[in-house]
Design goal:
This protein is mainly alpha-helical. The chain has 31 helices and eight strands.
Length: 668
């Protein structure tokens, strides 16, 4: 244990001495390849090399490795398929059970109900499966998998995959199962860091009924509680409608966001109705008397720093992907960080952005402000009074059970048959959330995916409904590509941008799901484009912040705070100030994802790019409103690489050019 802890504490990017990897020499590998009868010597050699790279002295001697390879390599195609089926079944059983245990342990901290105590948080962090990877190496299943289903790099998948059958893709995805050997103790450190960050964000509520102007007025309802950043942003967006004090409310929310980013927000006003707070002056009162409260300081950034330090521990066990940045992009997203950056910069620096900004300025009749990155006037629902929509959603969905019962009808409004709608909805469970809500997917047949949604005592308001519909889209994707997939290792989508795409498709049609005849028109294209512009800047700040962290491994939380703010200002001044004005705005650093889901944000704009290509495809259908058959077809393609998936879905690579061309047409 002491040796393991020493290894965990070390952060250099090389194999540690304590790991004691066996050194299987080149001559032994060459001899093995020559001696074993195989129809594909190159594939055999690939499998042997990958297994040898993670074989340790505890796994056996060199002679034992040679014997293991000869005994466990499967050359016959029929027997190889049998082996795949057994491993796939085992993976589905293990992943499904692991996922369900995690869901059940975290319910007290995630779902609405009694306030969780320390035991609840400890249990939510606990994972009885944290040593599963170790177990698979110790019982040699990991090596059997690597030997017979070796790993392919992203570049190889993109090139070779053009000619692969579905089964060959399934074999390649099986090869992704074991590419590193991270000790359980290291995994636990990461699990705690990310769980702490999630719990911090889940309770970051601003009591809007206790927010004051400097002259003592309250602009928001007494009982309004907004989670940062999601609900703050959505409340800001709702004030583009013709409502009292609309712009003053937007300015107030903008100031609150600035205080959260800078961390000079008084810590005691967060999730606490005991104080009144004036964000502009940053003064606080208790029972009518002014009091002095301590600022948060750098708590927000300490959470990010803890996650970074946890990632550093993992780096040394991933020689092929030695940083969290590489693992996130080339590993999880299967798109390089450089490619993501190029796509985003091409759009945020485009002339089309300036043209749309000028259109928004004309519609608003005022100079643009930084928060106009969330301009909401391109959506058809923005012309409908939100209180009317809220009255309807509260009546329809007073509690999670009502939303559950309503899902089949929503799917029918998209064109799914009654039978198909029931089939999909029966595999989704709706639960009341403590936070803003999320979708949690199933990992195997026989289990449900979960839609967590925040519903107030009076029922689901319209903003909550809109978010729930987004999560519903995630759940539909999770159902289709798990229950209806041909090979288990192909279940899912290429990356989370693709699941965000279907969530966006649903969210854009929230009125149609309510029974209205909503239309996906040029306004929708403008809305998608402006959404891309907003979230791409936020994503660049997230990416650049992590690059800075890896360049500054000894940084403190205060260092991180100051440099994250600096980066946010630089991105703003370069790509956003020319359109929206205001020098040195920090607004791009407000997203809570930067804290509880580092580097996840790029999935949203990447998803928006895909979304527009999908929407363009839908618009060319015989009946653009009857999209259910294409949803069924497209989201059963499974987990290919992004460009391979897009070519099967719509016949082209992932690209921003289609939406840039569309914006030129619309503005002209």
């Amino acid at each position: 244990m002491l040796a393991l802890l020493c290894a965990v504490a070390c952060t250099e990017n090389k194999k540690s001495e304590e790991t004691a990897y066996a050194d299987i020499s080149e001559s032994y590998i060459t001899k093995l390849v020559a001696e074993i009868d195989s129809p594909d010597k190159a594939l055999l050699e690939r499998g042997i090399r990958q297994a040898a790279s993670l074989w340790t002295s505890e796994d056996g001697t060199t002679d034992e490795f040679i014997a293991f390879v000869k005994e466990n390599y499967v050359a016959d195609p029929d027997r190889k398929k049998e082996l795949y089926d057994k491993l796939a079944r085992a993976n589905e059983i293990l992943a499904g059970a692991y996922n369900q245990v995690t869901i059940d342990l975290q319910k007290p901290t995630i779902l609405a109900g009694p306030e969780p105590d320390n035991v609840d948080y400890i249990l939510s962090e606990y994972s009885p499966y944290s040593h599963m990877s170790d177990d698979m190496f110790q019982n040699k299943l990991a090596f059997i998998t690597m030997l017979n289903f070796p790993f392919y790099t992203l570049a190889e998948k993109n090139e070779l995959g053009k000619d692969w059958s579905r089964l060959e893709w399934a074999y390649a995805r099986m090869g992704d199962s074991y590419t590193s050997r991270v000790p359980a103790e290291v995994s636990k450190v990461g699990s705690k860091a990310y769980s702490d960050a999630e719990n911090y964000i889940a309770s970051y509520n601003i009591m809007m009924g206790h927010v004051l102007t400097d002259d003592g007025r309250k602009l928001f309802p007494e009982d309004m509680v907004l989670l940062s950043h999601w609900n703050l942003r959505d409340e800001l967006k709702s004030n583009y409608a013709d409502v009292p004090n609309a712009n003053e409310k937007q300015e107030m929310i903008y100031k609150i966001m600035e205080r959260i980013i800078s961390q000079d927000i008084p810590a005691a006003v967060v999730n606490n109705p005991g104080y009144d707070w004036a964000p502009y002056s940053n003064k606080t009162w208790k029972d009518g008397k002014e009091v002095s409260l301590k600022a948060e300081g750098a708590v927000r950034y300490q959470r990010i720093l803890d996650e970074y330090h946890a990632d550093l521990l993992v780096d040394k066990y991933n020689p092929g992907m030695p940083t969290g940045i590489i693992r996130n992009f080339e590993g999880s997203m299967e798109v390089s960080a450089d490619e993501i950056e190029r796509l985003f910069v091409d759009l945020v620096s485009s002339e089309q952005v300036k043209k749309v900004g000028a259109l928004i300025r004309e519609r608003l009749g005022r100079d643009l402000r930084p928060y106009d990155i969330w301009y909401d006037g391109f959506k058809s629902r923005s012309t409908m009074p939100e209180d009317v929509l809220t009255a309807q959603t509260r009546k329809l969905y007073p509690d999670p059970d009502a939303f559950q019962a309503g899902m089949p009808k929503m799917l029918q409004n998209l064109g799914f048959s009654r039978e198909r709608s029931t089939y999909i909805a029966d595999k989704i469970a709706v639960e009341g959330a403590r936070g803003s809500g999320h979708a949690w997917g199933t990992q195997g047949k026989g289990y449900k995916s979960f839609l967590r949604t925040r519903i107030g005592a009076e029922g689901m308001d319209y903003k909550g409904y809109n978010i729930a519909v987004h999560e519903f889209g995630h759940n539909v994707e999770q159902t289709l590509d798990t229950y209806d997939i041909d090979y288990y290792s192909l279940s899912g989508v290429p990356n989370t941008g693709f699941t965000e795409t279907l969530a966006f498709v649903f969210q854009k049609r929230d009125l149609r799901l309510l029974g209205y005849k909503s239309v996906i028109d040029d306004n929708t294209t403008l809305d998608i484009f402006w959404g891309m512009y907003e979230i791409m800047g936020v994503s660049l700040v997230d990416m650049y912040t992590w690059r800075w962290l890896y360049d500054n491994p000894d940084a403190t939380a205060e260092d991180l705070r100051d440099n994250c703010i600096r980066i946010a200002k630089e991105v703003w001044n370069k790509y956003y100030e020319p359109v929206l004005g205001t020098h040195d705005s920090t607004i791009l650093a407000v997203y809570s994802h930067m804290v509880n889901s580092p580097m996840y944000l790029p999935n949203y704009p990447y998803g928006h790019i895909i979304e527009y290509q999908i929407e363009e495809h839908f618009s060319n259908l015989y009946n653009p409103n009857h999209i259910a058959p294409e949803i069924d077809r497209i989201w059963r393609i499974g987990r290919l690489t992004p460009n391979a998936w897009m070519n099967e879905a719509v016949g082209s690579d992932v690209s921003t050019q289609p939406i840039l061309n569309a914006i030129d047409r619309i503005v002209k």
